[in-house]
Write a structure and sequence with these properties.
Blueprint lengths: L2 H5 L2 E7 L6 H9 L6 E7 L6 H11 L4 E5 L5 H11 L4 E4 L10 H10 L6 E9 L16 E2 L1 H7 L6 E6 H4 L17 H8 L3 E11 L11 H7 L1 H14 L3 H18 L3 H4 L5 H24 L1
Parallel strand pairs: 1-2, 1-4, 2-3, 5-8
Antiparallel strand pairs: 4-7, 5-7, 6-8
Helix pairs in contact: 10-11, 11-13
């Protein structure tokens, strides 16, 4: 184990693919952190644009601790898998290659974490903001210190993307994202949903990440990826069908699962591992219509 890893509390990890033109902004935001109690882990998902050489230059400058790990291209979820295998710090947070951190973000994470009894807490839910520091969506519910991500959105009607800081030893209790041949995405939020079943998170109104959505990024190409990675999306939907206590969420997930099965041209995908088979049969016509609608939307774009 490297010496600096023993001394750090947080791993900031960044899965990246051909984003050498964006990484300098994130790097500078980390160099400028008021608290340097972190290591930056760059997981290079098969880049061919000089990312390796760029990161090596920063490693030589030694302004912050940086780990670089190269892997064959497999999609963002495979970068998360590798990161979770390698991370050894108490906490971890993913900052995407097109995003960056406010200068006090690491300090705020540590202050929040150390300010409570965190023995039974899985992490922190903080805020995302745009480049003008306008918070995306809603703040945390007033007077509520702890809860799950699902409760934030469904019970408290929260809106907008949030930044998740996770306790590493808890993440390692859960299965890796499955990796399917010729598919590049499994919805990352399914890990948070699984953690929700057992653990609470700290609700924080601190801005931990500044986001800058790119035209070619996963957020803006989600429908195309939905069609290209049907097994990955089906995996996430089956977990929600089997574990969600919200009937309407089950219905929504079943409709999506049916659509995934059609895109995969594998009807068995719809029923295998699905604990709501009767309801799935009832919803088959709606799922077919939804699939045609998604396909139409993709073609229009």
């Amino acid at each position: 184990m490297l010496f600096y890893k023993k001394m750090k509390t947080i791993t900031v990890f960044t899965p990246t693919y051909n984003r050498a033109h964006l990484l300098p902004r994130l790097y500078e935001s980390l160099v400028n952190q008021t608290n340097q109690d972190f290591v930056w882990m760059v997981v290079d998902d098969g880049s061919t644009d000089g990312t390796k050489e760029l990161v090596e230059k920063w490693q030589k400058a030694a302004k912050i601790g940086i780990e670089y790990h190269y892997k064959a291209n497999g999609g963002m979820h495979t970068g998360h898998n590798l990161a979770y295998q390698l991370i050894e710090t108490e906490l971890n947070v993913c900052i995407d290659s097109d995003d960056y951190m406010p200068s006090d973000a690491v300090q705020k994470i540590i202050d929040t974490w150390q300010g409570v009894d965190n023995s039974l807490i899985a992490g922190i839910i903080g805020l995302d903001a745009d480049k003008d520091m306008n918070v995306l969506g809603t703040y945390m519910p007033k007077g509520v210190e702890y809860g799950s991500l699902a409760e934030l959105y469904f019970k408290y009607k929260g809106k907008g993307d949030k930044k998740i800081v996770l306790k590493t030893e808890i993440v390692k209790q859960y299965p890796e994202y499955p990796e399917y041949e010729n598919e590049k995405l499994v919805p990352l939020g399914i890990l948070y949903f699984l953690i929700d079943q057992k653990f609470k998170m700290i609700y924080s109104n601190d801005v931990l990440c500044v986001v800058d959505y790119q035209e070619e990024g996963s957020t803006r190409t989600i429908m195309k990826q939905y069609k290209q990675s049907p097994r990955g999306f089906a995996y996430a939907r089956k977990i929600k069908i089997n574990l969600s206590g919200n009937f309407f969420e089950k219905v929504k997930s079943i409709i999506h699962l049916i659509s995934c099965g059609i895109f995969a041209r594998e009807i068995g995908l719809i029923f295998k591992g699905n604990n709501c088979k009767f309801l799935t049969v009832v919803l088959l016509p709606i799922g077919v219509v939804f699939n045609r609608y998604v396909d139409w939307k993709i073609k229009r774009r």
